[in-house]
Amino acid sequence: MTTTTSAKNLQTIDASTLKQWLEEEKVTLIDVRESPEYRGERIPDAQLVSLSNFDPQKIPQDSTKKVVLYCRTGNRSTQAAQKLFSQGYEEVTHLKDGLIAWKQAGYPTIVDKNAPISLMRQVQIVAGFLVLTGTILGAFVSPWFLLLSGFVGSGLMFAGITNTCALGMLLAKLPYNRQ
């Protein structure tokens, strides 16, 4: 199933359509998640062009194939599509509900159990550690350390409202996340 949305031509396909197009070799499949997510689990034949370093020049150009973007839920692939539109692309296709929909349909993925944990889990661990540290130091050393917990909480709230995560972008730049 294919649907079209947005002012430009953002086409949305479901997992079964993508599966059919992959079998017919009609697709260049681009994964826009971050490297640890890609290395951890991906759709076979997908190429990585992560959203944090998204460069339309990295998208393979093959006029016989349709470019299809996907991420975990479809949010980041929509953002990547907007970047392609700003570079002159007239039509972009992405997988509705991303990898989650692909897996729910029962289609295979490539899983690497030795890949680093996902960026979201890394953000949760670091943010949780900073909040806990600020709270403990605030209770036993100086109440000024509570500002650390407040700062991290504000940052998480800002990330949720704006759908951008500075901590996530910072962690994505670490060497083990860039492999």
Q: In percent, how helical is the residue content?
A: 40-55%
Number of helices: 7
**How are helices and strands ordered from N to C?**
EEHEHEEEHEHEHHH
Main pleated sheet: 6 strands, mixed
Give the end-to-end Cα distance, rounded to a whole number of Å. Answer: 35 Å
List unreliable stretches of 5+ residues.
none
Strands ordered across the widest β-sheet: 1-2-7-6-3-5
Could you say which structural class the secondary elements and strand pairing correspond to?
A: alpha/beta
Number of strands: 8
Shape: elongated
Main attributes of the structure:
single chain; 179 residues; alpha/beta; six-stranded mixed sheet; two-stranded antiparallel ribbon; 7 helices
Overview of this protein structure:
With 179 residues, this protein is α/β, with parallel strands linked by helices. The protein has 7 helices and 8 strands; from the N terminus they run E-E-H-E-H-E-E-E-H-E-H-E-H-H-H. The strands form 2 sheets. A 6-stranded mixed sheet has the order 1-2-7-6-3-5. Helix 5 runs antiparallel to helix 6 and helix 5 crosses helix 7. The chain is elongated, with a radius of gyration of 19 Å. The two termini are 35 Å apart. 27% of the residues are buried. The mean pLDDT is 89.
Nutshell version of this structure?
With 179 residues, the protein is of the alpha/beta class.
Question: Any chance you could write out the topology, listing elements then pairs?
Answer:
Layout: E1 2-5, E2 9-13, H1 15-23, E3 27-31, H2 35-40, E4 41-42, E5 47-48, E6 66-70, H3 75-86, E7 91-95, H4 98-104, E8 110-111, H5 119-140, H6 146-162, H7 166-172
Parallel strand pairs: 2-7, 3-5, 3-6, 6-7
Antiparallel strand pairs: 1-2, 4-8
Helix pairs in contact: 5-6, 5-7
